[in-house]
User: Fold these one by one.
Assistant:
Number 1:
Amino acid sequence: MKRSRLIITFLILLLISITASSCKPTGKKAAGGSESRKIKVAYHPVTIEYNLLVDLAEKKGFFKEENIEVEKVLSESQTTPILLSGRAEVALVPVETMIGAFLNKKKIKLLGITSTYPSRSYLISRFPKEKLSSVRKVGVNKIGGADQLLMSSVFDNIGIDKKKVEYVIAQQSQGKSAFLIAKKIDIGMIQEGKFRKELVKKKYYELNPKEVFKSLQFPRTIVASQKALNEKGEAIESFVKAIHKSLVLIRENKKEAIAYIKSKLDVPENAANGIYADVLSGLADSSSFIPNTEILKDSLSVVKEEVKPSNPSRNLDELIFVDYAKAASAD
């Protein structure tokens, strides 16, 4: 009899333990201290708006301070597909692709805003500003991708007729540069300075993103899969804190940030200063680091129009999780 009671007691305790471990808060710290402190981050080595924050956090020891191990999962183009495929658990991504994924029923959460507009996204055109109505072929990395959504959002403002343009796949800055020279496209978004500089020398026309995009809100974001948040909430919160530390460093230590840009990209001092100025112009501060639905309205509108997502009425409140950014900003 006594033995039976002990067995019953053991089984009840086991059931309670299993139930508790399976009921981790959604997007919050996991119960207990046994969760993994290693996270996989989608990483595109060319996109300085994103990799600068990750690289500085690594170099300055912010990940170590937060007791996390970060593995970079390299991407040749966009980081969003790597996150959605499950190969990475968190990523710094453009808002356009993030909103598109969410409205197509993907289980993701927006955790933070790293910049308020795409400050490195220069448009290079065969035509001057006053003749942009002549644009017919637009170079993009991917049909329906981030650069197409971003450019289509400003066509009306700069005199390009959306109904008359054709999108042509031209991969990255190098591909778009070659296509412009060959007259296979009329305009493209080029981030890498060496290609922009060469094109401007050849009498192509550069449109500054500060002029083109700043009236619109197309932020750069920190996003995680819901699965990763459920399994590694504490580690991902620590990642958000480390990225916030990188933002603060860039704002408060110009000399160190420029030195790192110069070394990372192997560019001269004046070019590093220009890149720093671009990054700084759109960089989020501690207040704008915290996500909100208002900053998503411009991107929501263009995604609905261009992508035709499967669930366009999905509530954006389901996307946003502010706790980690608030905690990071308060530190």
Note: The chain is about 50% helix and 15% strand.
Number 2:
Amino acid sequence: MRMKKRILILILILLASAGTLLAVTYTQPFAAGHGFAPTQSGACDSTYTDNAADSTDGNPVNSVNSLCIGRNDVPTTTWKKSLTWIDMGVTPGNTVTLVDGKFDHQRTRQTHAQVAQVGPLTIMDSGEVASCMAADPEAVFSYPNSTGLISWATRDATGGVAPIAACQPAATTVVVRFGITPRTGNNASAQTQVNVDNLILVITETTPSARSRAIMISMKSDGTMERKFGPWKTTKGESQ
């Protein structure tokens, strides 16, 4: 008795009709009308001010800053703006898959030693209840416990971060936020000022047609090929 044989040749996992990956860049140089607004938490003994239009200490021009004057104060200003991914350049109907954020920062003034901070850079849902991201696009940065100017530098320690599923559609409204904590030293007249400029989000998007499909190719005993395309169709009898 002759046994029929079928030899499995290959199993492939392919992308069929793969969606196109695109990258758009949202840049915020904090020019007039930038729309980021400050929310203060905590207090300063003497003065606690936020400047949304600092034309003196920008990189190279214009920035936002938070300034605290007082003894051992630990306030935090959260600068934030509500907008959709589409507002930031994503194509309507597409899906956001990755966000890579960065920003420039400077400790402009520190008269008495203390650890001022900048960050984190976060992207929240529209109600600011939960993060839209798997992790913060940039974590908190702490300046050294010292005095004086620390000149402009770019905070870019984290790579691309994926948004959670609920925040991936292009039309999703998110709140982009970053913090400034101008901690002051142990003196009644201690002053700390931190500036932020040039916020940039590189956003990767994909078209909605992306899907995966498996192809199984086997050889029958008569030498013909059988290809199975899961899960849509099967074609048989194709010659080798």
Note: The chain has two domains: 7-14+211-238, 20-206.
